[in-house]
Amino acid sequence: MAEQGITLIYGGGSVGLMGAVANAALRVGGKAVGIIPRHLWNKEVGHRGLSDLFIVDSMHERKAMMAEMSDGFIVLPGGIGTLEEFFEIWTWGQLGIHGKPFGILDVNGYWKHLFNFLDVMTSEGFLKTDHRSMVKIADDPAALLESLAGYVAPPADSWLDRAGS
Fold first, then answer.
1. Do 99 and 69 form a contact (C-beta atoms < 8 A)?
2. Where are the beta strands (DSSP E) in the chain?
3. Quick check: 84 and 62 in contact, CB under 8 A?
């Protein structure tokens, strides 16, 4: 990302995978912008060497600010917070709240069970094929960035328009 001039916008932590990603971007001259809730900053898990850091009052404010500042979204291996943020961004895309690209970097098959489940949801009719295809998937970072660069958002789901019929 840094080599392509893409600024990292993330949750502002100094620990874990995202702390390592931020450090890697900064190490090669890239920019890393963090947005961290005050309660996490006060626990001293915030990254103190970022290009920019915003301390906000809540997780909701953090996610809204990250979504606003970002041109796209990439999911790395993670836990329940990663899943929650991914599904929220995907839902917002499906509803037309944003038209930004998003994808998953599938490191060593980490997300394969999730993909299988999403395929079951699609085959059972709980997930539309065009919504399933919104998520770009790659196991190579450069390939994922390339697929996101060519992203065109599908039309927003029109279930609200059909609610009265």
1. no
2. 8-10, 32-37, 52-56, 73-75, 102-105, 135-138
3. no
Which residues have CB under 8 Å from 97's CB, separation 6+?
Answer: none
Give me the domains of the chain, ranges plus CATH numbers: 1-70 (3.40.50.450), 72-154 (3.40.50.450)
Report how far residue 68's alpha carbon sits from residue 78's, in angstroms, rounded to the nearest whole number: 22
- How long a stretch of residues is the chain? 165
**116-148 tens-digit pLDDT:** 999 999 999 999 999 999 999 999 999 999 999
Give the residues across from 55 on adjacent strands.
36
pLDDT value of residue 121: 97
The predicted-structure confidence for 49-104, as pLDDT tens digits, reads as follows 999 999 999 999 999 999 999 999 999 999 999 999 999 999 999 998 999 999 99
pLDDT tens for each residue of 20-59:
999 999 999 999 999 999 999 988 889 999 999 999 999 9
- Pick from 58, 70, 75: nearest CA to 18: 75
Give the bridge partners for 138, in sequence order: 105
